[in-house]
Amino acid sequence: MADMAIQARGLYDFNGDLDNGELTFSTGETLTIVTQDIGEGWWEARNEAGQQGLIPESYVQLLEPPEPSFPPPPPPSAPVSDWNTPQTEGGDWNNDAWNSHGSESWDQEPPHAPDYTNHNNAGGVNNQGFRGGGMQQQASEEGWDDDWDDENEDNSSNSTTNTSQDQLPGSGNFGLSAPKREKKQMTQNSDFSKYGTVKKSFNRFSTFAKTGGDAFLMGTVSANVSESDLIKIIDTQDGPAWNYPSQPYTCAIKSPKKESKLKGLKSYIAYQLTPSFSNIQVSRRYKHFDWLHERLEAKFTCIPIPPLPDKALSGRYEDDFVSERMRQLQLWVDRMVRHPVISQSEVFNHFLTCTDEKKWKAGKRKAEKDEYQGGKFFLTLQTPPTSLDMRDVEKRMEIFCRFVKGMDDNMRNMLQIGHDSRKKHTGPYKREFQKIGGSFKQLAETFNLDSAAHSQNLTAAIDYTGDTYNEIGDMYEKQPREDLDYMLEVLFEYKGMLSTYPDVLKLHEGAIGKAKECERLKDEGRMPESDVAAVIQRADVISFGTLAEMNHFQRERVADYKDMMQKFLHGQIKFYRDITQKLESALQKYENA
Amino acid sequence: MADMAIQARGLYDFNGDLDNGELTFSTGETLTIVTQDIGEGWWEARNEAGQQGLIPESYVQLLEPPEPSFPPPPPPSAPVSDWNTPQTEGGDWNNDAWNSHGSESWDQEPPHAPDYTNHNNAGGVNNQGFRGGGMQQQASEEGWDDDWDDENEDNSSNSTTNTSQDQLPGSGNFGLSAPKREKKQMTQNSDFSKYGTVKKSFNRFSTFAKTGGDAFLMGTVSANVSESDLIKIIDTQDGPAWNYPSQPYTCAIKSPKKESKLKGLKSYIAYQLTPSFSNIQVSRRYKHFDWLHERLEAKFTCIPIPPLPDKALSGRYEDDFVSERMRQLQLWVDRMVRHPVISQSEVFNHFLTCTDEKKWKAGKRKAEKDEYQGGKFFLTLQTPPTSLDMRDVEKRMEIFCRFVKGMDDNMRNMLQIGHDSRKKHTGPYKREFQKIGGSFKQLAETFNLDSAAHSQNLTAAIDYTGDTYNEIGDMYEKQPREDLDYMLEVLFEYKGMLSTYPDVLKLHEGAIGKAKECERLKDEGRMPESDVAAVIQRADVISFGTLAEMNHFQRERVADYKDMMQKFLHGQIKFYRDITQKLESALQKYENA
């Protein structure tokens, strides 16, 4: 936590939302800026009383320039930090990599960023968000029964972030930590340098280099991969694809139990997982999921691993939270179990099946020392005997980049609209129907003053109509739980998945770029033809892996969105049909009026 | 038009709506207040440039007190002057009369008065409002082919109002003139005074007295009413009722024609009326309706005459306006034709049937000299031979007063809600659906980047769903025309009718009060028993007439509101059913996705 000692003065009064980790300050108040790396127009600051929290940057002025006298602009939307790669780490990637496809920088959040987690306040889905695990983090060496408590169990993954969660009271991080990556390290000493000048633009290869991808590409790593470690990629009419297992399985998560140790000083929730292939229950804590997530990210270099649901900071033992988190863990496990590569992997199987503490530790250590992780993962890919047209692959990747970028925008937009719609259903729509209902009820009350027999049926019918509109108001309030919430959940899950894709695409782009650079060196007579051919062949392996994963993503995406849309429309149809029926029974009351 | 030369200064800038006859002014600007009698928080003022229009009284300060420095309050809703009895005329009635029933003063408009006419701006029903004709005005002596043009044709009825319409550009009087009544004249010289002190509270009898009601009650008028002039009241299980004609008829208004005279200098619209009993078409101008309205008010003392649609000041010859006004005139004629007394009256028949100019003038003069108008109307009532229990009648009237007051409140409230709802349908609701539709369309656009065959059907289905939601948005925009507008029309018509009821109830209350006073005088030995008995018998006649009319009102009200609710619910049911169907066909698209 670097305190840069930058000072700012409040331009306007800001009434911060404490629950969102915001800091209240007044016009003229001096604040110390803790970090400007929050994104979305938010900074973190500390006031003179030592309180720390988020502030809208447009509400303060760094100390130097004079104060303008405009009225305050609207505050930016609540801070969301899930997608934003922190500027100090990912600047090269965010700007160069995507701009090379003509797209804008991904982390330019629109002024009113969608924020699905916000709608928690309106009731309904208790969404705790998902968090990305560190791709390159040191795996913890803690054993089965270490003394982390839940408060601390993900400390290890906070080591590279600027804003550690305990500084943000409430849900200040809005359910989503920034993707954790190591600080950028220039890799100018890579094997690549032996062929000549390393261009500045190669900075963007750093991720690739770090994962060992360049070592693989340049042929400086090799191994005698055993048959059982091989991952087969096949050609299909939709392009390269993973070889889907003939016997898919499922895994149910149930019976979360609050357990404790150290004489009750430390407590945690243990979830019971039962894979369908074994039908043997294993008990796992959140920290085990977290460990698994790290291992999957470390090993499966070309597979974006969806973020886990985020850790909650308060209310972790409340039933609603526990069952909601369990549901989110179930969604995550479902997706992993459906993945043709992950579901068959040793580390995942270890997680799903190991019941013995000693074996757990051994398997854990083995996974952490897995020979074929990072760049070496590509050694295990068994590709079709065809070679790929690099330009064609580049074109496909470019389209897919646009796809991911576009879909990410869509998710944000739809989450925003859905979130708004949810609020409208529980607020103004409900009120509108109840205003109408109330006015009919009042009319009936007046009409009731006429005691003539022939008017009583009408009065009763109008009163009934008033009740009907009130009930329709209640239906509006409840409806989001019947259709919208499931859609929001899918959108939110995809938003998380999409946030992990840039790393994968970047890696592939690095490989292609390097292969093309080698071709250029060959043309300049500075690299032997056979070496270049080998590089291109290995670049093909990376392309095969990436394309196979893209294929899997699209396959899942089509199934998920078909399901999502059908469920949503079913819910909507039932809703409007129910309204119609209610109105029809109100109309019937007038028959004898 | 009295210019009182009251000056005021603008406290805030006010950006007036010219179409509503409002006057724009700035903070500090000096205005001459033309009249404070507009009501609803509006005054009429003239600026230094001589422009005249309505201003919100809370936006100015009469010249004397110092200026406060608060932010401007929201402007009051647009001026509506239908219900408000001008303060200079009706203060006694509005305060004393209703307060005697424990109800608040009727003309205390809530801060945001319902304003049905406002929604014209949003399209749909072009509602020009209704205006009440003067009850006691001098009937014009103009003939069939006088040289009033349409601009001037109701000048005669403005003689007693402060705000003549030609001073208000646009529809500044918001479709509704204040009920026209003569300035209050204390009638302490009535026959009543001969029995003793006239109490101050007898002021509230002024209306009654003015109409000649007291003369009737005290027996100082009499006549040998011919059989054909007698109006029969019968006893029914719901109380006294008019004797409904055995052969009801209808009257269609069609073919409005723009006609002109004086070599085209004057032009007007002539409507063609065809009563079903004669099937002979007669041509009538608005001024003829206006004249008829005056005559009906003058003659049928215990019958509230619904206001006519208001005169428009601009766009009078536009097709939309003409057909809308024709529809409103049709509603008015329908209601008159359904009235068992009015529909059978000579003056109404003259209006519906006379095709000859000379006969028209003669009939007009005859109607204006009708012997049995005002208080003498009661001479023509042929009541059942039963006598009424005065306390019981008082109790019924008290309940009915509450009914009228309550229903008036209901109308205002429902008009407000309906008006809001209308705006929401054409604005936010439409936009909300189109935002959802747009987001689906955008998602489909992104998904379209995936050219794999298996994803194309899903993409097409989502795109179709986007279209569906856009269309539902359009449906929301159009829906008010299918259900809400008819309801608003009925509510508005009843609001107008209810505004004319206080006069009728006041008259009856005056009669009962006078009869009770006579009973007291009898008890004190100051009035002979036989005189008192005769007064009470004549008070019964007034009660019979009033109760019969109440009965008719309730009968119409039950039929109208049954019809209104059924039409509304039919429209709503069709709407939600159509939405359901649209969504169902969207859902079908996913079957092959």
Automatic annotation (TrEMBL), chains A, B:
Keywords of this entry: Cytoplasmic vesicle, Membrane, SH3 domain
Any Pfam family matching the protein: BAR_3_WASP_bdg
Binding site for a 1,2-diacyl-sn-glycero-3-phospho-(1D-myo-inositol-4,5-bisphosphate): R285, K287, R325
SMART domains referenced in this protein's UniProt entry, alphabetically: PX (SM00312), SH3 (SM00326)
Superkingdom classification of source: Eukaryota
Subcellular location: Cytoplasmic vesicle membrane
GO CC annotation terms, alphabetical: cytoplasmic vesicle membrane; plasma membrane
Protein's recorded name: Sorting nexin
